[in-house]
Specification:
The protein contains seven helices and seven strands, in the order βαβαβαβαβαβααβ. It is of the alpha/beta class and 257 residues long.
């Protein structure tokens, strides 16, 4: 499959979006495609992920879906292999897979839930980086964005395993950035706040049609839309952000100010 020439600051780039079947991942896949990238959507949810890729193709952009569980090393590796086999290169990645498994007092959390949160939110990023970095280093260029959330820089009560994992994402991002900065590869972490996604609504117990008015604990008093996050991610994946690496960048409505 050849990359279809399109206009935009991501013209000709091949970008993996892991966890791209819904929420922020879906919005990022659609945004980078609109800016000229060929998109490889990776997700466990086959129907939703295939729908995202099909929508991009229907709009005239090159895309493909790969069923992949980011917490399984062979599947994370396979996602990169599939991207290169289909498009011949890899220029960027957005590691977005994650979720909240354990909630409650730290003393009440069992080992399985602890490990589950670490696997979903930290090990998934490790596996992604492990296989995404090599082709970018070989090419001498690339950009990776890892979704860490505000829980990667501040504590959240009753969500200790998630907080620990997201703090780990920030540290892992910085380590990877320092290892690759002199080889043309950039790695940054995204510190997202309250975003209207299925995960956030699930944590609030909110219905799909709930406007979430007054349910955003940040200075703006509102919840961000996934498309707002996607624009920032597209910038970080583009050459316009060439001097940004190793950063934990907040897009959180002032929540961590």
């Amino acid at each position: 499959m050849d990359v279809v020439p399109m206009s935009g600051r991501l013209h000709g780039k091949v970008i993996i979006v892991s966890g791209g079947s819904s929420g922020i991942g879906r919005a990022v896949a659609q945004r980078v495609a609109s800016e000229g990238a060929a998109v490889v959507v990776g997700a466990r949810r086959r129907e939703e992920g295939a729908e995202v890729a099909a929508g991009i193709e229907a709009a005239g952009g090159p895309a493909m879906f790969v069923a992949a569980d980011a917490t399984v090393e062979t599947e994370a590796a396979g996602l990169v292999t599939a991207a290169i086999a289909a498009f011949g290169r890899l220029d960027g990645a957005f590691n977005n897979a994650g979720g909240v498994q354990a909630r409650g007092a730290l003393s009440d959390i069992d080992e399985a839930d602890w490990r589950g949160d670490l696997e979903q939110n930290l090990t998934s990023v490790f596996f992604g980086l492990k296989y995404q970095l090599a082709p970018m280093i070989d090419a001498g260029a690339g950009s990776i964005v890892n979704n860490a959330s505000i829980a990667g820089t501040a504590g959240v009560p009753t969500m200790a395993p998630y907080v620990a994992a997201k703090h780990g994402v920030v540290g892992l991002t910085r380590a990877a950035a320092l290892e690759t900065a002199d080889r043309g590869v950039r790695v940054n972490a995204l510190v997202t706040g309250n975003v209207d996604t299925p995960l956030y609504r699930g944590l609030l117990g909110a219905a799909p049609d709930d406007p979430l008015t007054g349910r955003a604990p940040n200075p703006t008093g509102r919840v961000a839309q996934p498309e707002e996050i996607a624009g920032f991610v597209a910038f970080l994946l583009s050459d316009e952000a060439a001097f940004i690496t190793g950063a934990a960048l907040a897009i959180d409505g002032g929540a961590t100010a």
